Amino acid sequence: MSKYEHHWTMIVDLDKCTGCQACVIACQAENNIPVVGEDEIRKGRGMQWLRIERYWEGEYPNIRARFIPLMCQQCENAPCEPVCPVFATYHSEVDGINVQVYNRCIGTRYCANNCPYIARMFNWFDPQFPEPLNEQLNPDVTVRQRGIMEKCTFCIQRIRRARETAEAEGRSIRDGEVQPACGQACPTNAIIFGDLNDPNSQVSRLAANRRGFRLLEELGTEPAVIYLKGGESNVI
Amino acid sequence: MSETRDRRLLLWSGAVLTIVVIITGLALVQIEPEDETKINQTAVTLPFSHEVHTQKAEIDCLFCHSSALRAPQATLPSLNKCMICHSSITVEDDNARQNIEQLKQAYENGWRVQWPDVYRQPDFVYFSHRAHVNNGVSCQKCHGDVQNMTLVEKVVDMDMGFCLDCHQEQPEADIPRLIDCATCHK
Amino acid sequence: MSSYELSRREFLKLSGLGATAALISGCTANLQKTVWMEPYVTPPEETLPGEDFWFASTCRMCPAGCGIVVRTSNGRARKIEGNASHPLNQGKLCARGQAGLQLLYHPDRLTQVLKRTGERGSKQWGTTSWEQIVDEIAAELANMSSERVAFLTGRLPDYQAMLVSRFMDGLGGEKPIVYDAQSVLDGYVLLQAATQAMFDDKRLPVFDIAQADVVFGFGANFLETWLSPVAYGLAYGAMRSQSGIRGTMVSFEPRMSMTAANSDRWIPVPAGYEGLVALALGKIIVDERLGHDGVADKYRALYKKADVGAIAEQSGISVEQLRKLAHLFATAHHPIAVPGGVLAGQLNGLDAIKAVTALNLIVGHTGDHGAIFLSPAPPSRDLMQFSPSSFSEMINLIERMKAGKVDVLFVLGANPVYEIPEVLGFVDGLAKVKRVISFAVIPDETTAVSDIVLPAHTYLETWGYELPNPGKQQLIVSAQQPIVRPLYDTRDPGDVLLALADKLGGQVARRLPWPNLVTFIQTRLTSLQILSGNITANDAETFWIHWLQSGGWWSQDTVWESPNPTESFLNTPLQVNEPTFDGDAEKFPLQLLPVASVAFGDGRHASLPWLQEMPDPTTTVSWDTWVEINPQTAASLDIQDSDIVKIRSPYGEIEAVAYLYPGIHPNVIAVPVGQGHTELGRWAQNRGANVWRILSPQTEPETGQLAWAATRVKVEATTKRRLLPRLESNIGVDRAREKGHLPG
Hints:
heterotrimer, A: alpha+beta, 10 strands, globular, C: Barwin-like endoglucanases, 3 domains, six-stranded mixed barrel
């Protein structure tokens, strides 16, 4: 049991992830993430909070690809937090996640520089949503302006809504009730989300899996995202 | 929703950041910017007295602002709802009677009736009436003595300090959540 | 507290910023501006402002027919998600499905009826009303002999397909021609022809990958684009479930697709040899009597002509490896072999599909869990499923057009000017057609050369139904309903046809007697009411409401119907010819493999910015057209990453940016389809290259289907370079920058 009210945790099963990008677009749709265009992508300034990295293993003809979905790891010891001069990023004592407060951010980009996972995106320009594309924007999420840092929030707006509903119904949040956009879309069920404080939750069971590991574990950042190692079957 | 993204420079002193927050008391369907031209052509405005409705007619706030208990927004009543009473009730005052006539006309012709906002939240704040009203926060706590106002006026500057003052008076167990940035900032 | 932790205060001290006063910018709203609020006159039932409302419907971003739920708030569609109770996709949704909102809210949508005023192709348009245009078209059709009318469609949702089919039937014209580029790339027609030949059934087989323990994929890119990628994605996830046995997957194809990339082993087969490899595997299984005892003996006749040694030589896979693979497959409890996709683009595609499908038979495993089965057939003719036509019908249409035998051409759900080989001369044929009438959501290459453009609703603004094919072990009739009020003065093409039929009267009106789409759809559903499914309703109205609420009707019972091989199939030895390619091998040394794109499918969704910026899974490239070349081949041609190259076929040439791709056979290059649009809105226009243009028009001999992967090409370096917009680092690629020639 951690010190948080909920210890939101994400499990990513790399054996199931196919790299299909459904989560990437789901995230973009849910979180009002702008499209930056070809030139900015060339400069490595894509804004997608969730990206799928592809790694080659071996050489032709004995080659295979590995996919790793990478989002903010919501570190317990988040390197981004102490470097923010204005407390725009901090650790939530309620949800145990790393929160970015956009209207506090002054755009020093220290946090992004200090993030070993390259999980933070910076708005180099004002986002463009030519009308009527703006009609689609999620009213629960701010549209960030030029000069603001942003990143995956574990879909905190969904957590907020679920908490409000649960409270109005006089119960606690059920396992599976909060689903981030990525996990909800994932066709292969590779992304599972839930509360590690609940010993019966799906994430609690999966977190104990022997295939589990965290990214760059040696840095001591203690991410809240647990990956399950991809499988291996030896075929001829 | 609101597309205004004007940027302002705020002065930073120490580690305390003051941000002006205005909370809406009336919000319903906000008119999207592209509709504004249309509004001026076809919409009407009507005077409305909260005092008459709550004091004389003794109508409960939640009768008109019916979703305050159930939804983030409190709702402006539909013209349909106005007509529940006004199809049979009228008044002696000539002025008021004229206004009621206009209301009927608007209802029958499906005109758009528009109201100016008094309290409004910026785009980056998440506020839910449901969460507050269900936890025993009275309407007056934030909106002042609306029941005595002929025309609603802004009596509270709903800045972050105003919210936090109240949040910090809540039971201790709830305070961490109530002062967590992400609870209100989206 | 670990010793690692650094406090904010310490950091500020360290960085010397603690004492610096700074100006902060935040995202504050304009505080002066008054926002006017407007209550409803009569509120819609049960709406709570600021609360979400979810409507169930059916996705139409590809023909699969997944169930969706759309989040709306304050009258706007905000998010599309999978419908958790829908049997096909069980709450899941792919990238394209999510991006449907950008089609609805696309800023370049057609908003009113357009009528050409200038030269054809000049894009000078006048506008007119729906009433007027319906009158006009009806008058024209009334005075015309029906064989001079043609209707060309894509793979439409079943409700539209039925209306189109009845419309043409009523007119007395030819059957509508269904050309769907995505289905061509999937090998739909060939798969159907193969099941017809093998099992005497026209239904598409379903492959139960979920419960298989060994999956052999032959070209079917079922995780990316093939037929029903979300349903197959779900199945793949279950197959990889580590709570039970972890399934093993092997892919045989010339280019490592995303599906192959997720296999435990990708075996690069030279283009067109997939079927031969399957044949060899089958021969070994039968000869060595592998699999269930004695089952293989029944199929001995099929493999009379197969020569394992020869195939090993041709395919470059040793006899020993073939034997090991055959053993792996035949000794599994639930092996399954899946044909489709790239092998269907070859001239030997049909035989190859048969050879692969036969592998499922000889291990004695059909109609079962983890095997190949047929999904239930529709209960009545009211709910017919529609399939694409053979490409030969398309060629026939072009010939008729060229000969001046077509006066009116309707185009709906297809973009033939963009997506068929240029050499066939569709555009020349079109010039001879007196009246071209196109339905479209966003102006495309075909609307640009049309006379009348009828703006269509998006699927989020209209009614409909769909019977997913391939489906599941349940019968599904998926519901489609409007999520938002139509944004513009658009109509559902089905409603336009009903209005036309009403105007025309006579036989057409008898075939389309319904006043509107909703009535038509309601009459389709009557046969379902008495069946046992997810809805119990005593009357049609209740059924209708529940049907919309649930997002469809699906049967209660699950049926795993086994396909039974016909005698004639069992008695004819399988034969797969060596593949042949169009173009002289000397002049055009490489084979061109067009690849369906996970972002755009066949190209129809290149208009959507989310999908444009979505990295391709295996190359991580977005916004551009690249050509995948084996590094060894590239070296021999002196081509490096990001060089712009010319790809020349006997039918034309295109330019693309070289991507050195380690997962491709050295004799093959692959180009994704989807870009190279001259129309289709601001994000798609004038970007990348259209590979359809340079393809050979050859067709598979038996089915007449386009052999879209049987073109030879030559790749030449140019002196130009263009860095690809990609997620993967360009370090090592960007030579100019490393030498300091470019800033940044």
